[in-house]
Amino acid sequence: MTQEKNYEFVSSLMDGELSDKEFDQLLNDKEAQDKWHAYHLIRDCLQQPQQVSDKEARFVLDAEFSKKLAETVQDRPVAPVKRSNIGQADVVVAGGRNFYRFAVAASIMAVSVVAWQLWPATQGEGVMNTAQQNTAPAKANSQVVPVAAKQLATPENSNVVVPTAAVQSQDVPAVQSAVQVEKAASQAGAASAVQ
Amino acid sequence: MKDREVDQALVERAQQGDHKAFELLVSKYQRRLTRLLARFVKDEHEVNDVTQEALIKAYSALPNFRGESAFYTWLYRIGINTAKNFLATNGKKMVISADVANEEGEMFDLSDQLADDHTPEAEMMNREILQTVEAAVARLPEDLRRAITLREMEGLSYDEIAQIMDCPIGTVRSRIFRAREVIAKDLRPLLDTSENQRW
């Protein structure tokens, strides 16, 4: 019984239910190989189509066949293939292609991003003017409308509730200077649009 | 490891020069290949010659096998080509057209064109083996017989058998193994004869 248990892996292996570890055991154990042979013979018998007659059954090959084949194979060793070339070759090639594709895609993406970032700056004044025209206010002389701030509390906006913090933030000098810059830019844009 | 993975692993070992690995592949497929080629080649001795030649060709060509198809599909093609060449060289016609067998080597009903030229000894031995297996299966306890039948004749996985038999997968594994052991024990006297030793 103990011996039977030892060879259960052969049975499972031929059913595709085990791992590489048991596979190595098979190749290193003569008894396991005998069981492999017997189990496959049983499989062939059981899978023999019902309509096949005894005459068509070919479970045994003559001893001469086996002997000649064994001798021929021994005399004609297969050209050993390096481990790295077996099966993994496809993976390496596939991996190389994938890496190549990734590299090309990444390069195109990088060039696109850089070009997108640098392109307006390298196109000169004309482009800048166009951009400014597109962003210029409809009325050349109108001023930038302050965001929130105290002006919200005009009569027409009196219903708007403005957080105290937001109102207080309007007094921060930095905000005012930003508005001033914006105003200056819009005035410049309006001037160029007139030209 | 699934069946194809086992084959691939054996092929890789054989590609590295491990004769045992190729022997296990031959042990697994030689009967199937011989049965297939017997549908093309009439004479039994010629069938053996063609099968042997096909296996040797397969062995020599192993370095070129990259696992893009199943090993048996690849072996099947070699076998068919070997049979075609053999018949052409000997001025014989193919018994059947090649399109009756698909890529995976599955065969269709060709019973009216089968070779019928076993030697009486081989015929008797084949019958004896088949009867021994059938008798051993019939004597198996119900749980073992069911497990081995579902596996070998229905082609179910261990997981599927476990669901059908409502038992753990480990029990299925054990039952199938025990069933094979019982059948193999009955077969041993037949296989131990010098005429039927495996290579």
Which descriptors apply to this entry?
A: 195 residues, mainly alpha, 9 helices, B: 199 residues
Short note summarizing the structure:
Chain A has 195 residues and is an all-alpha fold. Helices cover 64% and strands 0% of the residues of chain A. Chain A starts with a helix and ends with a helix.
What topology does this entry show?
The complex is a heterodimer of chains A (195) and B (199).
Chain A: H1 2-6, H2 8-14, H3 20-27, H4 30-46, H5 63-75, H6 88-122, H7 125-135, H8 164-169, H9 173-194
Helix pairs in contact in A: 7-9
Chain B: H1 3-15, H2 19-37, H3 44-61, H4 71-89, H5 120-139, H6 142-152, H7 158-165, H8 169-191
Q: Ends of chain A: how far apart?
A: 103 Å
Total number of beta strands of chain B = 0
Gross morphology of chain A is: elongated
The chain-level mean pLDDT of chain A equals: 60
How many E-type strands of chain A?
0
Low-confidence stretches of chain A: 83-98, 124-142, 144-155, 160-181
DSSP helix count of chain B?
A: 8
Q: Could you spell the SSE succession of chain A in H and E letters?
A: HHHHHHHHH
Can you describe what's shown?
The complex is a heterodimer of chains A (195) and B (199). Chain A has 195 residues and is mostly helical. The longest helix of chain A has 35 residues, at 88-122. Chain A is built from 9 helices and no strands. Chain A is elongated, with a radius of gyration of 42 Å. Chain B is built from 8 helices and no strands. The longest helix of chain B has 23 residues, at 169-191. At the A-B interface, helix 2, helix 3, helix 4 and helix 5 of A face helix 1, helix 2, helix 3, helix 5 and helix 6 of B.
